[in-house]
Amino acid sequence: MKVFVNNKVYVQNNDLAYFLKGVEGKSVPSSIFNKIFGDVFIVDGSNRNDFVEFTSPEEVEFFRNCDWIIDYDSFNAMSEEEIIEYATHINDERNRIAEEFNNLPVEERKDKYISTAIKLEVLDFQFESVRDFLWYKQGHIKIKLPIEIKTNDAEKVQKSESKLKRVLRNIIKF
Questions:
Q1: Domain ranges across the chain
Q2: What does the alpha-carbon distance between residue 28 and residue 52 come to, in Å, rounded to a whole number?
Q3: Which among 77, 4, 1, 66 has a CA at the least distance from the CA of 29?
Q4: 112: which of 15, 51, 53, 153 is 20 to 30 A away, CA to CA?
C-alpha cells in the first residue's frame, strides 16, 4: 500500500519487497533503489506492514504512477462491496490473461512465458494487497499507518464535524 501525504509517499515494505517484478520495463529513480536495497533487510511478518518514507518529488511521482501498488486514499474511500468488486476484476483479468496464454501455439507460449508469468504474479500480488486492505478495513489485521495520515484523518473528521455543526445550526434556525 502507498500513502500520499504532505508531498511525501509512504510505501509498505511488502510492496517494496515485490518491487522489481512490478516495475519491469520502467525507469526507476536511483534514489528509490538506494533506499530499498541500500538497507539490507528481509521482509517478514514483523515488518511486512511497516512503511518507508520517500520525499523527493521524483520519488513521489514515480510511486504515483505505480498502479500495481494500492493507494490508501482510494481504497479507504471505497465500501467493502466496492473493494470486493475491485478484487473480482483483478481475478477476472488474471484468468483472461492465463486463458489467452494457454490458447497460444506452443512456440509462442515459450516466447511469452516469462512476461506472462510476471504479469500474473503482479496481479496475484495486487489481489492479495486488496484482500489485506479489506481485512484491515474490517479490523482483522492491524496496520500502523504513518503518523501524518492519522493527523490528516483526524483533521478530516474535525472538518466534517464542523460541517455537520454548520448544517445543524442552519436547520435549527428554521
A1: 1-69, 71-143, 147-174
A2: 16
A3: 66
A4: 15
